[in-house]
Amino acid sequence: MSREIERRPNGAHVSAFERIRRTNDAGNEYWSSRDFAQVLDYANYRNFEQVLQKARMACFNSAHRIEDHFVDVNEMVQIGSGAQRALSATLLSRYACYLVIQNADPAKEIVALGQTYFAIQTRRQEISDDELEHKRRLLLRQEIKVHNLRLAEAAKTAGVVESRDYAVFQNHGYKGLYGGLAAQDIHRRKGLKKGQQILDHMGSTELAANLFRATQTEEKIRRERIEGKDRANRTHYEVGAKVRQTIRELGGTMPEELPVAENIKKLGSKRRKALPSKDSETLRQG
Predict the structure, then answer these.
(1) Residue 117 bridge partners (DSSP)
(2) Which residues contact 92 (CB under 8 A, 6 or more apart)?
(3) 253 and 215, same structural domain?
(4) DSSP class of 203
(5) Distance separating alpha carbons of residues 212 and 216, to the nearest angstrom
(6) Which residues of the chain have pLDDT under 50?
(7) pTM over 0.85
(8) What are the backbone dihedrals phi and psi of residue 22, each rounded to the nearest 5 degrees, phi first?
(9) Contacts of 144 (CB under 8 A, 6+ apart)
(10) Closest Cα partner for 255 from 192, 189, 196, 184?
(11) Total structural domains in the chain?
């Protein structure tokens, strides 16, 4: 029987890579490079460190943060006498394992088996992550619709009554959050076509930033009883700028630099088609 797969008493097959998989207190999975080296038949860990270095470089070249996938630690390892001593190790995410296995010695049978295993598992995770992102986008987009109505009501009490005045008010919020870019500028920067709404092409991170801008502006206008179009515009700009500053302080990507997402209206249509007819009818009524 292959070393990569073993059979459990109940008949299920278990991958060698699953056997060494660990989870932390938060339920997140990870692998130790020490365990990984043993499974891949690297008797000399120094040789395996060269593989780790290549995997780190591949991670960097793929525009992923290395520290999100490779964490250097000291862990207690049992030595021949039964005692333990601290040795350097690297904790690996599933994606890191995929990169490691791609850079390991292809002549080893276990490496070839591992490449197939992690390719499949990584693809499954990508599909799962995409589905989660779609759900987040749909939820946040609906929340923004609701809170933009509330923001419009708050702005109206402050004196922003005419449609053209509200467009100016909205642009002040965008300019604060997007470093001086108005809605039309954002539309052009994102490469959107005429008639496409910028909110419909935002990912969940960008939508969340705009939702925070809208909710905090509404609350500030009501709380401080802002009066006058100029004060309302200035308030919206200041809140947007504050959200932008927070993103910068956290090391996040500026909203204008975030990628354009698929039209959210298409996502909603796909989800309705995937639902049973009764659930689809309920969604339309809601």
Answers:
(1) none
(2) 30, 31, 32, 33, 36, 69, 70, 100
(3) yes
(4) -
(5) 6
(6) 1-14, 273-286
(7) no
(8) -120, 165
(9) 199, 207, 210, 211, 214
(10) 189
(11) 2
